[in-house]
Amino acid sequence: MRVALYVTCLVDLMRPSVGFASLRLLEAAGCEVIVPEAQTCCGQPAWSAGDRDLASDLARKAIAELEGYDYVVIPSGSCTDQICNVYPQLLSGDSLWGGRAQRLAERTYELTTFLADVLKVSTVPSEFDGSVTYHDSCKGLRTLGIKQQPRELLLRTPGAAIKEMADCEECCGFGGAFSVNFSEVSTRIVDRKCDSIAEAAADAVVGGDLGCLLNIEGRLRRRGDETTRVLHIAEVLAGGEES
After folding, report:
1. Which among 67, 150, 234, 235 could disulfide-bond with 241, CB atoms 3.0 to 4.6 Å apart, if both were Cys?
2. How far from the centroid of its chain's Cα atoms is residue 196's Cα?
3. Does the domain spanning 130-238 belong to CATH 3.10.50?
């Protein structure tokens, strides 16, 4: 099984350890993993900003680079949503690319969904000594149905104990450009999330979208919390997590 690992811009630029952890997880599950060297942005920022032409160009580029694999796996719900749900919509009127977009969408999965639902892994290659509370990202939860998959994988991680936070499904306030354009609203939203994290009293807050995690971590540190770790789920399941 040849799997293309689409690492995402944020992982590549901000926390490569998530990409390496994803690679270890997939290889431990028996996949032949290839990281296409020419991969770039999936086009989500352009799409969200209303630049349909640029989003379409980036979609065609990604499709051409990713369609030759059995599966495409992404450690991000938001980027997975872009390929699975936006690409077919964006290119639906294109006789050449519309069908290719749909076929790629059918073979593209967010990391925890691929591990839990497609590969049905029963073990993970690492241990975690401590408690975690899980943040459900908006795109992953609401457009891809990612809810139980990461929790099932955490339950299979030796040493990890789950402490559910209140309102775990609430937005973290990031929303890409939303946090820049509406900073005061975004700060109030992420403060609510940080309050829930504090009340859960877990050793780490874990999620599947690095954008959310960077936003949460930044606010936790500004509020004076220097101890709660903020980790991508791949880092917990495969080890090599940030401290």
Report:
1. 235
2. 21
3. no
